[in-house]
Amino acid sequence: xxxxxxxxxxxxxxxxxLDACADPAFPARIACVISNRPDAAGLERAGRAGVxxxxxxxRGRSRAEFERExxxxxxxxxxxxxxxxxxxxxxxxxxxxxxxxxxxxxxPSLLPAFKGADAHGQAIAAGVRLSGCTVHYVVPxxxxxxxxAQAAVPVEAGDDAASLAERVLGAEHRLYPMVLRWxxxxxxxxxxxxxxxxxxxxxxxxxxxxxEPT
Length: 214
Ligand code: GRF
Known about the structure:
Layout: E1 2-7, H1 12-21, E2 29-35, H2 41-48, E3 53-55, H3 63-76, E4 81-84, H4 93-98, E5 103-107, H5 119-126, E6 130-137, E7 147-154, H6 161-184, E8 188-191, E9 194-197
Parallel strand pairs: 1-2, 1-4, 2-3, 4-5
Antiparallel strand pairs: 5-6, 6-7, 8-9
The structure holds 5-O-phosphono-beta-D-ribofuranosylamine.
């Protein structure tokens, strides 16, 4: 599988995917990385990994032009699957439907809670005891596609959005490559808008937060 990764910034999730794909036994390759921001640090990460890194500045282009160029670059690199990793532009329904079932995203909350921007600020404001991250298929509606996998992370006393973000990010870096591997292994199927995963177990037990001190 040849994945194209779309980013807008830091690219730490991209790094997790690059690191996973550096293992010859991993069943996917990153064919190219595209950023809508020319100054995205993630472009350098791609460069360091020897992966083509392309900036397509969304400024000064219509949305249609921008997406056409993204599509052209993905095609040029033989991409057959798209991973959004901190990509901060909304994609048109046209683009999303063209990649339907072949485009995923990672969002830093347990969807369907806390969609959109500032998921961690929303989680702190709501006072939830568990937050986390979700890898899901992309559909035209933002942060709404079929959920593939989630990781739950405790919210700690005194957390703010930044400290929670850092803890959740650690989970993101484990979850995203794992899901990409499952997809590349052909183990994920979409049936009636829900995801089925073959050969995966349900995590046993439960995660309770907070707990009594020991
Ligand atoms: C991550 O928290 C991701 O879930 C969200 O944007 C952030 C991107 O971080 N969509 P990075 O660029 O991967 O470091």
